[in-house]
Amino acid sequence: MRSIFTLLTRALILTCTLSGATSPSSLMSQEPSIKLWPQVPPGRIAAQGEEADTSKPGEKNVAGKPVIRLGNVSSPMITVYAPPAEINTGAAVLVCPGGGYNILAYDLEGTEVCQWLNSIGVTAVLLKYRVPRPANEARPLEPLQDAQRALSMIRHNSAQWNVKPERIGVLGFSAGGNLAARLSNQYEQRQYRAFDEIDSVSCRPDFAVLIYPAYLVEKGGSSALMDDLPVSSQTPPTFMAMAQNDPIGPENVLSYSAQLTKSGVKAELHLYPTGGHGFGLRATEEAATTWPARCTEWLRGSGWLSK
Known about the structure:
Blueprint: H1 2-18, H2 24-28, E1 33-35, E2 52-53, E3 69-71, E4 77-81, E5 92-96, E6 104-105, H3 107-119, E7 123-128, H4 141-156, E8 168-173, H5 175-185, E9 207-211, E10 238-243, H6 251-262, E11 267-272, H7 291-301
Parallel strand pairs: 5-7, 5-8, 8-9, 9-10, 10-11
Antiparallel strand pairs: 1-4, 2-3, 3-6, 4-7
Helix pairs in contact: 1-3, 4-5
C-alpha cells in the first residue's frame, strides 16, 4: 500500500508542478536529495545567484504546459525515485536533463522522465548537475565530473536501493544526451581525483538512451564525432531517438550510430520525419513523441527489464 500511495503522491506533485502551482524547490523537497560531493565539488562553479526556475513570463511552453528551467546550480545532487516494489525490475537509470549546459529542463526532461521510468519498474536517479557552463565552453568538464560521480554512487548503493549493479544505465536529452554519450565513452579515467570509496566503483553505464542529443559531431555540417567521444567496442549498447527536422541536426545520431555499428556495439536508432527539438516525453500528434514506447520495447528486448 505504501508504494502505491507514494506513486499517487508523486503523480499529484507532478500535476501541480505542470500547472504552475509548485515551485522547483518544493518539488525537489518531495524526495530526499543526496549531495554528490562530500566537500566542495571539483572544478569550477559558474553559477551566480540563487538556484531557481529561470523561466520568464510568456516563455515557450511544451505541449501546452510550462517548463521548469532550473538555473544557477552550484550544489550538484541526485534524487532517487524508486518504483513500486511489486514491479521493480532491478534496473536503474541516471537521468540527465538538457538545457544547453546553461539551465536544466528539470520537469520536462527530469521529474516527468523519472515518473515514466518508475512506471516500467526502473529506479530513476535524477542528476542535478552544475549549470551554467563557464563562458566560451560548449561542453564543460564539471557536468561530466558530476555524472561520473553519480553513476558510481548508484552502483555503490545498489544493494540499499534495490538495484542490480550490472543493470545501471544513463538517459539524457539534448545537452544531457551529450553528457550521457560522454559518460558512455569516458569511464576508464575519472575527471577528478578520488574522494572516497565511491570513486573506486566503476562509473561505466551498462546501457545508454540518447534523446535528441547535441554536440556529438563537429560544427559546420561535419559527420566527424567530437574527440571526447572515443567510441569503442566497450561503449554501452545505445538507444537513440531524434526528429529529422531538429535544428540541432540529425547528423548527431546518424554519425554516432554509424560509429557504434562500426565498433560492434548494439544500437537502435529512431529518426522521425518531424518533431523538432525539446519535446521530452510529452505526447502530441507528432510520432517523435512515441519514443518512450519504442524505448520500453528496446529495454525489455535487451533484457534490462527482466525480473
